[in-house]
Amino acid sequence: MPRKAPVLPPPRVRGRSARRVTGPGDAWLTRAHFLARLSRAWDTRFENMARSGQIGRWYSAVGNETTTVGAALCMHPGDALSTVHRDLGAILSTYLDVTRLAPTLFSASDGTEWDSRRSEPTELLYRLACQMIGRRDGFTQGVDRSFHYGLIAPEQGIRHVGMISHLGSMLPVGAGLALAALQDATDAVVLGFIGEGATSQGDFHETMNTAGVMKLPYILVIENNQYAFSTPTSEQYACSSLADRAAGYGIAGESIDGTDLFAVHECLERAFERARSGDGATLVEALLPRMRGHAEGDGSWDVVPEGDRAKYLARDPIPRLEKALVERGVLDRERIKRVEAVASECVSAAFERAQQSPEPDVSTALRSMYAPGEAADAVAREVRS
To answer: Mean pLDDT, 10 residues at a time, over the chain (385 residues)?
Structure first.
């Protein structure tokens, strides 16, 4: 039987009623726009590298920027972030002080209290570039070349838990972080991301059920780009919206247009308020267009019918965002050009420096994998001998 190509559902919101939140201010919007452009510039660089054989594989986040950036910019210092393949925008939004990274675009008055705690942004971008090409100065010191890493820096307000390839397995980790927040009596919230494919794994059900029973401060954003690798949603689940599953767990659920930054902001602000006030978890389905394959060069983009590819590409969230910001008078076309140029310069500077950085130290691969410290290292040495 031939496959039925998925049709991107119309934008809609489902779930529990809640007050309408105040819309984002101009400072928030200009920051979000720059971070979305920075994420796109990063992807463009690494997509080209993958296509030219300079790196083995790249999982592009093109098309997801307004969802990941918009959601992460609703976080507070000390909130936890759990990411997977296509969440570069959330990582950049959590790590970077844009006022120091792009002083020609932002003034010191555009900074936030969180910015004052963050470390030097060019160094963080450099380390991230090293991580992506497997160099010693990356977060895993060259042991891995991907987003399989985390950054726990409480002094900076950053609690980023990295991913493993078995994506559904990260969901209980997010629930555990949320439980820890309750046990520590903090107001911290956990923001997690997952693709729609992982919602068919048992870990998803167990996590959401636990989140509902224990009223965990956990927000899970499903990035539904209509295909799980090469499997269309029509062959994966029969419900009309993944947010409908929330009712079965006794939690709030909303389905939104993930290419609409304003819809993302409204939904996530509501979800964070719900979590901080003790009303529990929220399941968010962000409907997104499939603008790239699962990974560059794996053939999964060819599975998408040609007509649908054109429709998905036409729903690129960044031009849509820029059109809305110009219409609102938040920025003009000249500012957009400057943002694109600065974003590209930031990525180029980080990558070119990373290319000159040292290769991994082979001895690093033999380090203890259990815990830092001499005791763990001594055990590891004994095992190896």
So the answer is: 45 49 91 97 87 77 93 98 93 98 96 96 97 92 87 96 84 96 96 90 95 98 85 81 95 97 97 97 94 70 79 90 97 97 97 93 72 70 67
Biggest alpha carbon distance in the chain? 67
Q: List, in order, residues 6 or more apart from 35 with CB less than 8 Å away.
A: 65, 69, 73, 89, 92, 93, 96, 98
Q: What is the pTM of this model?
A: 0.89
Query: What is the spatial order of strands in the sheet that 158-161 belongs to?
Result: 151-153, 158-161, 80-82, 190-195, 218-224, 282-287, 252-257
240 touches 10 (CB < 8 A): no
Domains along the chain?
A: 26-358 (3.40.50.970)
Measured in whole angstroms, how far is the alpha carbon of residue 209 from the centre of its chain? 23
